[in-house]
């Protein structure tokens, strides 16, 4: 497992932008991990938002986005800083909730019927995003 440290988040008006970051502590290299972002709205289950597969160990580095965020959210890796970011543009009130990054060594993003599975070993503590006027 890897310790994940999340940053970013906050309060933004509808249509605004936020940038979430997920970093590894303890010397782990995130390039080796498939990374996912999950959103938990108040009173609802945690849902996969996006995922980026590892490029190492036969991974292809591909990305997945849930239909609800396609065209608005962008997930990228920065190997130099050992972080993965989720750029969130065009935010909507329904994007409000807690966002979690997650990491796993076992393989690429696991998507079934358009949904990202929660097959991740390591999870960040979560960070709050509030979209409200």
Task: Explain what this protein looks like in three dimensions.
It contains no helices and 13 strands. It has strands at residues 3-7, 10-12, 18-25, 34-40, 46-52, 63-65, 73-78, 83-88, 97-104, 111-112, 115-116, 122-123, 127-131. By secondary structure, the chain is mainly beta. Strands 2, 4, 5, 6, 9, 12 and 13 form a seven-stranded mixed β-sheet that branches. Strands 1-3-8-7 form a four-stranded antiparallel β-sheet, with no helix packed on it. The protein has a two-stranded antiparallel ribbon with strand order 10-11.
Write the layout of secondary structure elements.
Blueprint: E1 3-7, E2 10-12, E3 18-25, E4 34-40, E5 46-52, E6 63-65, E7 73-78, E8 83-88, E9 97-104, E10 111-112, E11 115-116, E12 122-123, E13 127-131
Instruction: Determine the mean pLDDT.
Output: 94
Largest pleated sheet: 7 strands, mixed
The Cα radius of gyration reads 14 Å
How far from one another are the termini? 39 Å
In N-to-C order, the SSE pattern is: EEEEEEEEEEEEE
Number of strands: 13
Overall outline: globular
- The low-confidence runs, each spanning 5 or more residues with pLDDT under 50, are none
Number of continuous helical runs: 0
| Secondary-structure class | mainly beta
Q: What proportion of the residues is helical, as a percent range?
A: under 10%
Measured by DSSP, the beta-strand proportion falls in over 45%
